Amino acid sequence: MTDRVVLAYSGGLDTSVAIPFLAEKTGAEVIAVAVDVGQGGEDMEVIRKRAVDCGAVESVVVDAREEFAADFCVPALQANALYMDRYPLVSALSRPLIVKHLAAAAKEFGGTHVSHGCTGKGNDQVRFEAGLAALFPELKVVAPARDYAWTRDKAIAYAEEKNLPIETSKKNPYSIDANLWGRAVETGFLEDIWNGPIEDVYAYTADPAEPREADEVIISFVRGVPAALDGRALTPFQIISELNRRAGAQGVGRLDMVEDRLVGIKSREVYEAPGAIALITAHMELENVTVERDLARFKRSVDQRWGELVYDGLWFSPLKRALDVFIAEAQEHVTGEIRMTLHGGRATVTGRRSETSLYDFNLATYDTGDTFDQSLAKGFVELWSLPSKIAAARDRRL
C-alpha cells in the first residue's frame, strides 16, 4: 500500500512546493488540507485547485470559521488568555483546530504521515505534533523545512524547476500568520529589536494616532460567551468579525513584544488583535462584577496556566481539559452587558450592568442610609491583624 501524506496546506509557496517534494522524497501520495480560520486572502476554492495542480491526489478545504470562533476563541476569552500578560494566543489557538482536521482527513483518506511547514525554531512544530500525538499517535510526521533544511531560496528554485502554478518572485519582507482572532508579524527588519514597527506592518488596525470619532459599543455576554453587540444577537464569529472591524478602525489591539518561545529562544513579535483585546477587556470587567472574590483570585492563576498550556501546544492535554471544567463552572454567572468606548488605540469600559451582579449599591455607597454596618469593622480589623501583630511581637522579643 502506498504511503499517504496529509499536508497542512496554506496555498503559499512553501506548502505548494512541499506537495511534489514530499512525493519525490518519500514516494508517497499527498493529500492537501486547507482550513479557513478567518485568515482572509485568496478564495479557498482557488487554493483547493492549486493543490491539485501541484500534484495532490486529494485536496480538502474546510470552512472552520464558526467552529474556530465558538470552540477555540470563546474558551480563550473565558480564560482571559494573554500569554506573558499580553499576547492573546493568535497562532496558538488555530493550530489545534488545524490538527483536528488533519487527523480527520488522515482517517478518511488512509493517511500514514502528516506534514507541516514549520521550522525547527518555532512553537508551531510542537503544537502540530503534540496535538497529533494526542489525537492520532500512529501517524508519522515529516516537516520539510525542519527535516530537510528546506529554505525559501530552495523552494523558489524548486518551484521554477517544476513549473509549479505559484508566484515565486514576490518576497514579502515579513512572516505573517493571520486568523479571526488576530494577526502575527515577524522577521525582516523587525528582528532588530531596536527598530520600531512601521505602518505597513499592520493590516487589521488603523493608526491609533489619526484623528477620528470615537465608537461606542455594548457587548452582551451569556455565561461568559459573547452573544450580542448593541442589542443585536450574533454568533461569536460574527461578533469577533465586527469588533475586528470596529476596534481595528480605532487602532485597538496593537502589540509589540519580545516573547519567550517554547523552544527556549526569545523572539520579537508584532501582533494586532482588535476584536480579541476588546472582548477580553470587556469579559474581564464583567467577571469583576459577577465573580466572587476568592473564585476570581484563584481563577487568575488558572487563566495564566491555561494560556501557557495552549501556547505550549498542549490543547489536548489532561490538565488543559481539567482546567476547562473549572473555567466553565466559573462562568456560571458571567452574564450581562459591558459598554465600551473604542478610540485612540484603546478599548475603555464605561458601563456595566448584570442581573447576576455582586455589586450592591446600598453596601458600596458613602451616602447617608447605606446598609454597611461600620461598627463591625473595628473587631474585624483587629482579628485580621492579629497574626501579624503576634509575629511582630515575637520578632521584637528575639
Note the main attributes of this structure.
398 residues, alpha/beta, Rossmann fold, Argininosuccinate synthetase, chain A, domain 2, Single alpha-helices involved in coiled-coils or other helix-helix interfaces, 3 domains, 13 helices, 14 strands, Arginosuc_syn_N, EC 6.3.4.5, cytoplasm
Task: Please give a structural write-up.
Helices cover 43% and strands 20% of the residues. It has 398 residues and is α/β, with parallel strands linked by helices. A five-stranded parallel beta sheet has the order 3-2-1-4-5, with helices on both faces. Strands 10-9-8-13-14 form a five-stranded antiparallel beta sheet. Strands 6-7-12-11 form a four-stranded antiparallel beta sheet. β8 (215-222) and β9 form a beta hairpin. α3 (65-78) packs across α8 and α10 (293-311) runs antiparallel to α11. The longest helix has 21 residues, at 377-397. The model has no long low-confidence stretch (mean pLDDT 95).
